[in-house]
Each structure stands twice: as structure tokens, then as C-alpha cells.
Write a structure and sequence with these properties.
heterodimer, A: 675 residues, alpha+beta, Beta-Lactamase, 4 domains, two-stranded antiparallel sheet, 62% helix, B: 404 residues, alpha/beta, six-stranded mixed β-sheet, four-stranded mixed β-sheet, 16 strands, globular
């Protein structure tokens, strides 16, 4: 990008800038659009391939189910293989006896010819069948579609392996697996067409700008219009290609259903009409009479075009007629996606044009060049921060917009996207309390606002206690001529020095109702032992006591440092003027402490707000989750209830609260910093 | 020179070839002391016999607290063992998370399945597929002080009558002491009434009428009959029993190690509940299973060892030297095992025991159930109200997990 040196006298060339902007913008639109179109066409082609594969597989499976076992199955499979050259191998496994009933795999001939028991290396095939059986049971029991009932696996060489369960009398008795050769590659959009979407607008701009001259606003409008036109044009032609592909696909899928139905009927007809597929031996004592030949149940072709949970897509009936209305609505949805993407892309490109055209890029490059030494110093640290801080942070925020749980942790995030739903359910749940039958108030301890209240109360009480006690002890330690000052200092810092995990557990033990020291002392004074973790108030007190003991050393050290930096002649002057000790404290000591104490208080507020260890280890939220703070509640959601998305939203809310506090506190302290 | 340079690596390769064919099977367990020694004895014997086939089994003791999390983190990434031994309560979660436990239906035959007490095989099964072989089980049973109680009660009426005679709350003596506010221990009473946590589905049914009836009986024992102490922590129960102040305790094999040497204790099956129509108390059993890790590269060799470990001679070693109660049925016909009063007592109890659910939804039940038990025994809520609340909490969590 050209950068005019200062004082050239000519000023920046708007034509050049807008032209460059338009070039970059159209390249963005064309390149991204081309990529998206290729992917979409590929996906559509694959979608069609998969559906055709599933249809013929399910047709085969239905016929095999009616064939039963033995030679009949092998005949059916052989007949199926004849008609489907694109199927490399078909295998039928029955659970009873772990047997390979039929196979058209070239490796399964001679010694390995079916029927035979599966070999150890073929355990995966058997497990696949069991997985399908368990999936059907799970989906039926849970009343939904959570596990795949037809498994599709793309092998590394591009071929697709499909497996479907064989159901007989409501029970899964085996599976049919087919391996299809890789499908032909999908048609790709022409590169030349895409290039034209770059070249034509830029040329147009070049020509028209000669007419317009150096007028900034007019040039800007022209560039914007040309870009919008490019985006719209590319979007429209993409949509035309996609809808054509999709319509053709639906027709071919409907055709496939019709053909499969016909072939399936033929295979069925060729089966020997038996009494029943799983014919049992007649009970002893009765003469085996010629059982009436029951024709196998009719096939249901309309159900073959289905999704992974064997739910029919319903886009065509069994006879080859496409359901126009349903296809039209599916197309409508796809059109909406294309429109949205085009608008987004166009907007992004427009921003780019504006940025470059109005001189933003030139300014940026200028800054980088002027300060390149500074930037090169910052770069390594920025790199580390991005990797260790920003990336996990951003990932957490993205996760909070999904509803990821342990069950769908391998699903791509776009599939489980729920937008702001987690935040809404956290922040708009106002059912904090309700009146019980006897008139008392029952609080809902799982509610966000109760937890927020506890967290704020926790923070305020702890920081107050820490500051007050720390300050008092610092004043005591600061007296001139105090004996054994180093010893006192060491003793008073010990609570802070010891690992708070261990001390928290010790404190929890001290509050034990029966064996704890605190209750022994209480009993010494003649009072009844208190069951500390039974009521919210006493439970909160235990945690507060523990954290108070842990937190005052920090405040004491800060205050001590600040106290020692106050010049003593201030106090002398005050004494000469006749100020009392209290007036000295208020007018000299406190204002001098503010610059040191205020940052310490901010730090302490943030630490205490997120003090996971104490609450988790001392009270564990007892009783019934009433003393949970936001961070421990978030932990419980993530690792006990396995709701990762919800917990991420919770954590982001905590961050939001602390961010607001930090900014607000910063503004407040700027005014109180001066002595 | 050139030829010999090439020859050397080839020579090494040739020598290493039989070593390359060796199969290493790594077993992780959380055992200490006698159990660990017994397991290592079995492994050493196995290695000796199978050295010719090139199979070598090594064990690694992992601390119990970190065991489950280590499996969850390491195994799916292929960094775990080939075999691991753990209780069945986390099985459902591991199966749903995927890539952790290998189904072994393919290897099983009827003879192997028939080896085990049927309910222990149930504990290893999830949605109709078997994921491991059961090694041992733990159940709670009735442990009583023989000096205070010459003969244990067989029915709940006898239990209350005998316990009342031995209870004097003021001096801190109780007829019966057990962690009745712990849902795990209470399950024994609950299951006697036909109560349960999940219906098939799984559908949570914490507030089923049978569960409420069981809780009402418990509260009767506590408040009306007064035979139970308040705030029953494990420390309290141990100290009461060892001080001769508790005549009967419902607890499991873990309690036996805490009993003081002076106490002459006996074991008996939990009494039947007259209020439930004479049905026996059915405690939950925790079954330790031996599982094969899904990413293992030596599944055949692993299964071979798993089958060997759960076979009868090895079960005898684990029983007599490891002090476990094996899930293998045949081992109890052995004279040494059937003569051991502890082993035979637990064997009798497990006949009526029910495997603890191995569903992933089970982890969501503990917290609301414990809360409910606490509110009930502190009399802050009626059994029905508390269980209704617990049921709501569990339903909400299960629904949040399933919505897709």
C-alpha cells in the first residue's frame, strides 16, 4: 500500500487508496465465496451420495431381516452385489454364534467362506453391531435421538463404510455392513468465473474514477456500490448453482428409492416362502404338519431415506415422487444461510474498503514503521500471552455460547450453538425465595442471585476484617521500642506462609461438631456444642473465621510498609499543634495509607471473590449449597453435573462482574489518590 | 568395513526380533498392603507360566484418590494401561465419554459368564453389553458385639426389641449404630421396600412411594424407638462400637479393620423387614471389575490375563491372602474359604444384594440425595417433601445433560 511521505505537497491519492481497497475487498469476497461454494457443492454431493447409500443399505437390511439366516441370506447378498458395482464388499453378521453369515468381500473365500465364526481381528465388526443395538435401546429408552442407529465411517482412502442393524420382532439380531468405493469428486466452480468477479469491478472503478477525479466522498460511494454489487452477484450465482444441484439430488434420491424398492421386491420374491423366518422345532409329540406358507411382510420403501437415527426424511414417497413442498422448505432454509453469509461477507469487505480507502491502512503501516523497535520488543511476550491467556479465555467465552456437556463433548461447536441461552437462564432466574407451607421463607440455594449475594457478603466481610485487623496489628507493630518485634512479625506472617489447602482442612476439622476444638472450648464455657455446618449462618461463620485468619497478614504487611514510610516530623508538627492521637490518625495516617491500601484492597477483593479453596474445603457449600460462592458453584456445574457450556457462561459472568468492579474502582480511586 | 557396518544393525535387529514379539500388558490398580501382595503373587506366577509365549504382565499401583481421574484423562489419549481394576460406579460415565473401556462380549463364552455370581455380572453390564469381568464385591452386613448380643436378630421386630433393651441414650449407649444419613447405607433399607433410584430409561424416581415408606420406617427407628444415635459420622460409630456402646452396626468389610482387638464381633445377614412384608434388606454392592482399555494394543493378551485373574484358583489367593470377597462362585466351595467366617458371611449377604447403578446419571444423584437425607434426619422436612425436592433437582440435571 502506498504511503506518501510527509510534506510531499500532493497529499494522499484517494483514487489509489479506494482502488486498492476495492481490490482487496473483491479478492476477499471472491476467494472466500469460492471456497464456501466449493465446500457447499461438495457437501451437497456427499449428502446425496450418503442418502443413496443408506437407501440401498436399508433396502438390503430389510430383505435380509426377512430372509432369516443361512443360504437365503447368502442368496440375497449375492443378488444385491450384482446390482451395485459401487459396493466393494457386503458383510452380514448375526449375534447368535458370533457368525459371519454372508460376505462378498474377496478375502472371505475358500477357507474363510461364510458361514463361520468371526475371527479375533474382526472383533470391531461385532462390536459395531453391539453398538448399534445399544444405540437403538438408548434412543428408545430416552425417547429421543442421541446415538447413531446407522453408522457411517469414512475410511482413509475415501471409501465409505456403512452399517445398519437387522431388526426382527423388535430385537436386533445382527448387522449388515457395506463398503462403497470412493464417490466421484464433486463438480467445482470455475476459477475463471471467480476471477472475473475481481477483475471486472476493479476495471470499472479504474475507468469511472478517471471521470470522477479525486473527490473523496464520490469515490467512496462508487467503491462501496461496486463492492456491494460484486457480493450480491457472487451470492446470487452461488445460490443458483446450489439450488440446481440440490433439486437434481432430490430427484435422483427419489429415483434410487424406486429402484431399490423394485430390486428388493425381486429379491424377496426369490426367497423360498418359509413358515416363519426363525422357524423353531415343533414341540415334541405333535406331528410336524405342513405349516401355511406365510409371505414375508411387505417392504416399506418410504422409510429408507432416513437420517442417522433411522427417522425417515420424508422428502419423497416410496414410488419416486419428490415431495415438492418439503424440498422447497429445505431449499428456503439453505437460501437463508447463503443470504446471511453473503451479507456478512459483503459487510466485512465493505469495512475493509472503508479502512483502506479512508487511509486507515496507511496510518497503521506508518505507525508500525516508526515504532518497529518497540513492537519487536513486545512481540515475544504478546505471543506467549496469546497462547496462554487469550486463547483459553476466548475459548471459554465461545464455549459459553454452546451447551456442551459430557455427552456431546466431541460434537463440533457449531452444532451445539445456543447463543445467549445460558446467560439468559443464569441471569433471569429470579426465583430466589418462596414461602413454605408454614409461612417460613425457603431460599433456593442453587439460584445465581443467592450465590451472588453470598459472594458479595463473603467479599465485604472478609476484606473489612482483613483490613481492620491488618491495620491494627500494623499500628501495634509500628510502635517505637517494641521488644521482640522480629519474632512477632514472623509469627504474624505464618498464616499467610502456610499452604492454605492444609490450613483450610485443619480449620474444618476444628469445627467438627463432636471432636472439634472449637466445640470443646464452647462447652468449657458451659454452652451447648454448636453444629457448625447445619445452618447457613454458622457455616458462613466458619469459612469467614478461616479466611480471616489467612488474610490479615497480607494487609498487615502492606500497612506496615506504608506506615514506615510516613515521615515522623508530620506527627511532631501535629503534636506541637495540639492534635489528639485520634486526630493524628485520621488526618495524617489514614490519608498516607490510601495509596498503598487502595490497590491492596482491589487485589484482595478480586482474590476473595474467587477464593475457591476456603469455601470448597471448609464448608463444601454445606448446608445444601447455601454457602457456595460463584466460583465453587461454577465448579460444581462443570465437574459434578458435567454441563461444560453452562459452567463456562457462569465463569464469564463472574469475569464480567469483576471487570465492572475493577473499572469502577479505578475511576473512584483516581479521585482519592492525592494526599 | 562397509559390509560390517551394515551387518551390525542387522544383527541387533535379528536378536531383538523375538523380544519385539513380546507382548507387554500393563495393569493399573489402587491396592495396598495384602491386596497388592496377593495380586503381585498371581501376576508373578502368570508371567512364569507364559514367558514362553512372550507375554509379560506388569502392575502399577496408583493412589486411590487420583485413580478415576487418571483413567478419565490418560486412557482416551492412549497413555493409559491395558487393564485397570476399579469399582463399577464410574463405568457408565467412562462408556459414554468413549474410548475408555472395551466391550468384551466378543471374547465371552457361556462357561466364563457362568463362573460369577449373576448380580456381579449385571454390575459389569451397561445397556446389554458386558464391559469387564467382576473381580470382587463389597456389601454391608450386620456386625454385632457377641458379648452384648448373644444371637443376632433375624427380623426388624426382633431388631427393634433387642436394640431397645440395649439402648440408654443418656449414657450414650445405643442398640444400633450405622451411617443412616448416608444414602449408600440407607439404600439397603430402601431396596427392601422395593425402592430404587432409577426406573428403566433411566428415569429418576427418587420420590417413589416405596422410598418414602423406607424413610418413614427409618425415622420411626430414630425418633419413636430411639435406638439410633444422632449425627452418625463414621468416627462416631467406630468409637461407639469399640467402646462397647453400640451392640449392632450395619457396615462393610472396610469396618472390620477398625474394630478393636478386645471386641468379640460376629457377622450376620441383615434382618428382614416385617413392615415390607418380610422382605430382606438389600444392600448395594460395589463390584470391582477388571476392564480392558479401549486403546490397548494387546487386547487378546489382556483378555487372557483378565480371564486368568478371575478364575477359581486365583480367586482363592485373592480371598485368603488379599482378604477380598471374590465374585467367583466356585471358590466358596473350597474348605478354607467356606470356613472363614467373614468370607462366608459376606457370601450369604450378597445373595440378596443389588448392584449399585453404574449409570453416568448416578453421579448427579448423590448431592441432592445427601441433602435430602440430612434435612430428613434433622427433621427440617418430611421424607416426602425432601425426596420431592431431590427428585426435582435430579430431573433438572438429567434433562440438562440429555437435551440435544
Amino acid at each position: 500500500m502506498s504511503q506518501r511521505p510527509d510534506g510531499s505537497g500532493k497529499g494522499p491519492s484517494h483514487r489509489l487508496r479506494f482502488g486498492a481497497g476495492l481490490l482487496v475487498g473483491t479478492i476477499l469476497v471472491a476467494a472466500v465465496g469460492h471456497r464456501l461454494l466449493t465446500t457447499a457443492l461438495g457437501e451437497t454431493a456427499r449428502f446425496g451420495e450418503d442418502r443413496r447409500a443408506v437407501i440401498s443399505l436399508r433396502a438390503l437390511t430389510d430383505v435380509v431381516a426377512r430372509a432369516g439366516s443361512g443360504e437365503a441370506v447368502r442368496t440375497v447378498v449375492a443378488g444385491f452385489a450384482k446390482w451395485h458395482p459401487q459396493v466393494a464388499a457386503t458383510r452380514v453378521v448375526l449375534f447368535d454364534g458370533i457368525s459371519l453369515e454372508a460376505s462378498t468381500d474377496p478375502a472371505d473365500t475358500g477357507e474363510n467362506a461364510p458361514p463361520r465364526r468371526l475371527k479375533r481381528e474382526e472383533k470391531d465388526l461385532y462390536d459395531r453391531g453391539q453398538r448399534l443395538r445399544a444405540a437403538i435401546e438408548t434412543n428408545r429408552a430416552e425417547g429421543g435421538g442421541r446415538k447413531d442407529e446407522v453408522e457411517k465411517e469414512r475410511l482413509p482412502d475415501g471409501s465409505v463404510s456403512l452399517a445398519a442393524p437387522i431388526e426382527r420382532d423388535g430385537e436386533v439380531v445382527g448387522l449388515v455392513e457395506t463398503r462403497r468405493v470412493p464417490p466421484p469428486p464433486a463438480p467445482r466452480p470455475s476459477l475463471l468465473t471467480t476471477l472475473s468477479y475481481v477483475v471486472v469491478p476493479v476495471l470499472l472503478f479504474a475507468l469511472l474514477s478517471l471521470v470522477i477525479g479525486e473527490r473523496r466522498v464520490a469515490l467512496g460511494i462508487l467503491a462501496a456500490l461496486l463492492l456491494a454489487g460484486t457480493a450480491w452477484g457472487y451470492g446470487a450465482q452461488s445460490w443458483a448453482k446450489l439450488s440446481r444441484a440440490r433439486t437434481a439430488l432430490e430427484a435422483s434420491v427419489a429415483e434410487q428409492v424406486k429402484t431399490s424398492a423394485a430390486r428388493g421386491q425381486e429379491l424377496l420374491g426369490a426367497l423360498p416362502a418359509t413358515a416363519a423366518p426363525l422357524a423353531e422345532a415343533p414341540p415334541p409329540g405333535t406331528a410336524p404338519e405342513a405349516a401355511p406358507a406365510i409371505p414375508p411382510a411387505p417392504l416399506d420403501p418410504a422409510s429408507w431415506d432416513s437420517d442417522a437415527f433411522r427417522r425417515p426424511l420424508g422428502l419423497s414417497d416410496g414410488a419416486g415422487n419428490v415431495d415438492e413442498a418439503k424440498v422447497a422448505s429445505a431449499l428456503e432454509e439453505a437460501k437463508r444461510t447463503v443470504t446471511r453469509t453473503t451479507v456478512l461477507l459483503g459487510a466485512l469487505a465493505l469495512v475493509l474498503v472503508g479502512f483502506i480507502g479512508l487511509g486507515g491502512l496507511a496510518a497503521l503501516l506508518g505507525t508500525l514503521k516508526t515504532h518497529r523497535v518497540a513492537y519487536s520488543y513486545v512481540l515475544p511476550a504478546m505471543f506467549g500471552m496469546i497462547l496462554l491467556v487469550f486463547f483459553p479465555f476466548v475459548y471459554g467465552i465461545i464455549l459459553s455460547f454452546t451447551d456442551q456437556t459430557i455427552y456431546n463433548s466431541s460434537a463440533p461447536l457449531t452444532e451445539i450453538w445456543v447463543g445467549f441461552q445460558n446467560y439468559v437462564s443464569i441471569l433471569t432466574d429470579f426465583k430466589v425465595a418462596r414461602t413454605a407451607a408454614d409461612g417460613g421463607i425457603i431460599f433456593n440455594y442453587q439460584n445465581f442471585y443467592w450465590t451472588l449475594w453470598i459472594t458479595i457478603a463473603w467479599t465485604v466481610t472478609n476484606v473489612t476484617y482483613g483490613v481492620v485487623v491488618g491495620l491494627i496489628l500494623a499500628l501495634v507493630l509500628n510502635t517505637k521500642g517494641l521488644a521482640m518485634k522480629p519474632a512477632y512479625r514472623v509469627l504474624l506472617i505464618l498464616p499467610w506462609a502456610m499452604p492454605n489447602y492444609i490450613t483450610a482442612l485443619i480449620w474444618q476439622g476444628m469445627f467438627h461438631q463432636q471432636f472439634g476444638v472449637v466445640n470443646q472450648v464452647v462447652q468449657m464455657f458451659g454452652m451447648d456444642p454448636v453444629s457448625w455446618f447445619e445452618k447457613p449462618a454458622t457455616s458462613f461463620f466458619t469459612a469467614w473465621a478461616t479466611n480471616g485468619w489467612l488474610s490479615f497478614p497480607f494487609m498487615m504487611v502492606i500497612s506496615l510498609g506504608a506506615l514506615q514510610s510516613i515521615p515522623s516530623d508530620l506527627y511532631e508538627a501535629a503534636r506541637v499543634d495540639g492534635a489528639t492521637r485520634w486526630q493524628q490518625f485520621r488526618s495524617i495516617t489514614l490519608p498516607s495509607l490510601k495509596p498503598a491500601l487502595v490497590p491492596a484492597v482491589i487485589l484482595s477483593v478480586v482474590w476473595t471473590f474467587n477464593m475457591f479453596n476456603i469455601i470448597f474445603l471448609v464448608t463444601a457449600g454445606e448446608p445444601a449449597g447455601s454457602t457456595e460462592i460463584l466460583i465453587t458453584q461454577s465448579y460444581k456445574f462443570a465437574f459434578q453435573k458435567y454441563q461444560y457450556g453452562y459452567a463456562a457462561a457462569y465463569s464469564t459472568v463472574i469475569f464480567g462482574i469483576l471487570l465492572i468492579y475493577g473499572v469502577f474502582q479505578n475511576r473512584m480511586t483516581k479521585g482519592t489518590e492525592a494526599i | 568395513m562397509k559390509i560390517s557396518r551394515l551387518a551390525l544393525p542387522l544383527l541387533f535387529a535379528a536378536l531383538a526380533a523375538p523380544a519385539l514379539a513380546q507382548k507387554d500388558v500393563v495393569v493399573w490398580h489402587a491396592y495396598r498392603a495384602e491386596e497388592k501382595a496377593a495380586l503381585e503373587k498371581i501376576v508373578a506366577a502368570y508371567n512364569q507360566v507364559n514367558a514362553a509365549r512372550g507375554v509379560k504382565v506388569t502392575t502399577l499401583a496408583v493412589p486411590y484418590d487420583a485413580f478415576a481421574d487418571k483413567i478419565t484423562a490418560a486412557v482416551p489419549r492412549g497413555k493409559g494401561p491395558d487393564i485397570f481394576i476399579y469399582a463399577q460406579d464410574r463405568l457408565g460415565g467412562w462408556i459414554e465419554a468413549g474410548k475408555t473401556v472395551e466391550p468384551i462380549d466378543f471374547f465371552l463364552d457361556k462357561a466364563t459368564t457362568a463362573r460369577f455370581i449373576p448380580t456381579t455380572m449385571e454390575a459389569m453390564t451397561y445397556r446389554g453389553t458386558v464391559y469387564g469381568l467382576p473381580l470382587n464385591y463389597k456389601v454391608i452386613t450386620l456386625i454385632y458385639n457377641k458379648k452384648l448380643l448373644p444371637a443376632p436378630p433375624k427380623t426388624s421386630k426382633e431388631l427393634v426389641a433387642m436394640a431397645k433393651k440395649l439402648t440408654d441414650a443418656k449414657s450414650g449407649r445405643f442398640g444400633l449404630a450405622y451411617s443412616y444419613s448416608d444414602f449408600y447405607y440407607h439404600a439397603a433399607l430402601q431396596n427392601a421396600f422395593g425402592g430404587r433410584v432409577f426406573d428403566p430409561g433411566p428415569k429418576p424416581v427418587l420420590n417413589a412411594p416405596e422410598n418414602v415408606k423406607a424413610l418413614e420406617l427409618l425415622m420411626r427407628w430414630f425418633t419413636v424407638d430411639g435406638i439410633l444415635p444422632a449425627e452418625p459420622s463414621t468416627a462416631l460409630i467406630t468409637s461407639l462400637f469399640n467402646g462397647g456402646k453400640a451392640a449392632m452396626v450395619f457396615s462393610g468389610p472396610w469396618f472390620l479393620g477398625e474394630i478393636a482387638k478386645e471386641i468379640d464381633f460376629g457377622l450376620a445377614p441383615l434382618p428382614t423387614i416385617d413392615e415390607a412384608g418380610g422382605k430382606p434388606m438389600r444392600p448395594w454392592m460395589t463390584v470391582e471389575g477388571v476392564y480392558i482399555a479401549a486403546p490397548s494394543k494387546n487386547k487378546d493378551a489382556a483378555y487372557d490375563f483378565v480371564k486368568h485373574l478371575t478364575d477359581t484358583p486365583q480367586a482363592k489367593v485373592m480371598a485368603l491372602e488379599g482378604r477380598q470377597t471374590p465374585a467367583n462362585q466356585a471358590v466358596y466351595s473350597d474348605a478354607a474359604v467356606s470356613g472363614d467366617k467373614i468370607l462366608s458371611a459376606f457370601r450369604k449377604q450378597v445373595e440378596v444384594a443389588v448392584p449399585m447403578p453404574n449409570l453416568p446419571e448416578m453421579t448427579m444423584v448423590w448431592s441432592p440425595a445427601t441433602t435430602a437425607m440430612n434435612t430428613i434426619v434433622k427433621k427440617s422436612a418430611t421424607p416426602k417433601a425432601a425426596m420431592d425436592q431431590a427428585q426435582q433437582a435430579v430431573l433438572k440435571d438429567v434433562a440438562a445433560l440429555r437435551k440435544n
